[in-house]
């Protein structure tokens, strides 16, 4: 069976235009809303558990917008001025599941650090940390993008969240959602208590930082974010060490069976909804927190940022473009997308709609052969080597483990540029030396030949 095309990553959701209306729709956006269209593409399923260590750099299972950077603290999302809203968005969806994020929140009045689970029909589960107060987290949910009276948000305790790395968890099943702070359950929402607005459709995972207190935002958003933001006191940074994502369903893709938006209407290609249900509830709980300190009537939906028009997007990682993973590639437990088999030396030809893989591979000079290997982050890298020496083998994750090289190594495709501040690790010792040696040897041979003729 042909594997499904990895679908378009939805653009970051926008903040509410006003927070004073008693009945409104969330100011979020979906590339194709399955509750109003029956022709939406399938959602690529995670169907497993991945544990991503961002201290090791970027992974290609999350698409970047803005300019997140990578270092000892993991992925860092910095807001330094108007329009800055760096974020990562998963190229996969989960159908019920658990998301654990270990992070340090950004400080600053008006600055918002956010974890959002959001579906194509605008179901949503949020955790948001306001830089003006490092003692709490705001938990929230929306069903089908409906905000009604903005009465679903709560303030929950999360002390010292700007100075310490803390693990936050959203555990989501068909029956309930539990929000955790450092192993402490701070809020539980039952399906029966959601008044018909329970999130229950396949979700992407998004996280990042933005300025809710920017002067360009609606007054209600600025007030909610406890702004305005004073950029002269910045920059303001959120850091994420790791993210664990567990899909409680199995399969390759999720589709909507009708326009109802109910979880019973969701179909799995090659798996089962709740096929991994046995993993539910495996979060280690150390305590249960007291009730929320107060309800928040003014938490906007969409939680990441108010629109993308002024943001700078990372090269090769545009959230509004389709991300296509070639047939025969797979996800590793560390969140890297790599060839499924060890015999693969070149990715198959990409689909015509793909913008993430090169449309053609460079040809090698006569006597040399071009092969493709994969660096430590799962990104393809082309190698040009002597034909007779072009022997390469790969480990179980598709990474090169041995090869005799005599020529150049160069990045293959824009996906290697997702981390502009950190060079990709070398594929093997000696590649750079070989790259320089071939042109030098050729030039030496030419000079010797010319001298011989002159003599």
From TrEMBL:
Stretches assigned to coiled coil: none
Molecular function GO labels: endochitinase activity; glycosyltransferase activity
Protein topology in the membrane: Lipid-anchor; GPI-anchor
GO CC annotation, single: side of membrane
Pfam families: Glyco_hydro_16
Catalytic activity: Random endo-hydrolysis of N-acetyl-beta-D-glucosaminide (1->4)-beta-linkages in chitin and chitodextrins
Record keyword Nucleotide-binding present: no
Any single biological process term in GO: carbohydrate metabolic process
Domain GH16: 1-233
Residue ranges, compositional bias (Low complexity): 339-365
Secretion signal, residue range per the UniProt entry: 1-26
Gene3D superfamilies found in the cross-reference section: 2.60.120.200
E.C. number(s) listed in UniProt: 3.2.-.-
Subcellular location: Cell envelope; Membrane
Keyword annotations from UniProtKB, A to Z: Cell wall biogenesis/degradation, Disulfide bond, Glycoprotein, Glycosidase, Glycosyltransferase, GPI-anchor, Hydrolase, Lipoprotein, Membrane, Signal, Transferase
Disulphide bond pairs: 32-40
Biased amino acid composition, Polar residues: 308-324
InterPro entries reported for this sequence: Beta-glucanase-like, CHR-like, ConA-like_dom_sf, Glycosyl_Hydrlase_16
Origin: domain of life: Eukaryota
Annotated spans, Disordered: 294-375
Function description: Dual chitinase/transglycosylase that plays a role in cell wall architecture. Chitinase and transglycosylase activities are coupled. Required for the polysaccharide cross-linking at the septa and the cell wall. More specifically, transfers chitin to 1,6-beta-glucan in the cell wall.
PANTHER family in the record: GLYCOSIDASE CRH1-RELATED, GLYCOSYL HYDROLASE-RELATED
Family assignment from sequence similarity: Belongs to the glycosyl hydrolase 16 family. CRH1 subfamily.
Protein name, per record: Crh-like protein
């Amino acid at each position: 069976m042909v594997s499904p095309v990895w679908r378009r990553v939805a653009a970051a959701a926008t903040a509410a235009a006003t927070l004073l209306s008693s009945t409104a729709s969330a100011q979020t956006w979906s590339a194709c809303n399955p509750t109003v269209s029956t022709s939406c593409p399938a959602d690529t399923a995670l169907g497993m558990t991945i544990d991503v260590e961002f201290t090791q750099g970027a992974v290609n299972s999350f698409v970047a917008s803005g300019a997140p950077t990578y270092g000892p603290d993991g992925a860092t999302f910095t807001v330094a001025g108007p329009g800055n809203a760096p974020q990562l968005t998963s190229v996969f969806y989960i159908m019920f599941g658990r998301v654990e994020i270990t992070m340090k929140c950004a400080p600053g009045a008006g600055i918002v650090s956010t974890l959002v689970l959001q579906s194509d029909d605008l179901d949503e589960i949020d955790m948001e940390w306001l830089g003006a107060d490092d003692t709490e987290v705001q938990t929230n949910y929306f069903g089908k993008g409906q905000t009604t009276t903005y009465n679903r948000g709560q303030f929950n305790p999360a002390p010292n969240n700007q100075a310490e790395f803390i693990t936050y968890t959203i555990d989501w099943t068909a029956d309930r959602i539990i929000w955790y702070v450092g192993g402490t359950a701070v809020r539980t929402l039952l399906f029966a208590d959601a008044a018909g607005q329970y999130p229950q459709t396949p979700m992407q995972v998004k996280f990042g930082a933005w300025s809710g207190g920017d002067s360009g935002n609606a007054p209600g958003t600025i007030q909610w974010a406890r702004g305005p933001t004073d950029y002269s006191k910045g920059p303001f940074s959120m850091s994420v060490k790791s993210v664990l994502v567990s899909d409680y369903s199995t399969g390759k893709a999720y589709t909507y069976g009708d326009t109802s938006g109910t979880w019973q209407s969701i179909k799995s290609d090659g798996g089962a909804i709740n096929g991994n249900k046995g993993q539910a509830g495996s979060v280690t709980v150390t305590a249960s927190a007291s009730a929320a300190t107060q309800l928040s009537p003014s938490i906007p939906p969409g939680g990441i940022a108010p629109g993308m028009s002024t943001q700078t997007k990372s090269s090769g990682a545009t959230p509004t473009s389709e991300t296509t993973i070639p047939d025969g590639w797979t996800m590793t437990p560390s969140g890297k997308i790599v060839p499924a088999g060890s015999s693969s030396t070149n990715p198959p030809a990409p689909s015509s709609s793909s913008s993430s893989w090169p449309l053609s591979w460079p040809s090698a000079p006569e006597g040399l052969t071009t092969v493709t290997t994969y660096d430590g982050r799962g990104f393809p890298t082309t190698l040009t080597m002597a034909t007779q020496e072009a022997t390469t083998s790969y480990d179980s994750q598709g990474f090169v483990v041995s090869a005799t090289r005599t020529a150049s190594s160069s990045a293959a495709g824009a996906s290697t540029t997702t981390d502009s501040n950190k060079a990709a690790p070398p594929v093997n010792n000696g590649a750079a030396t070989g790259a320089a040696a071939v042109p030098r040897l050729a030039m030496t041979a030419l000079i010797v030949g010319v001298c011989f003729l002159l003599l």
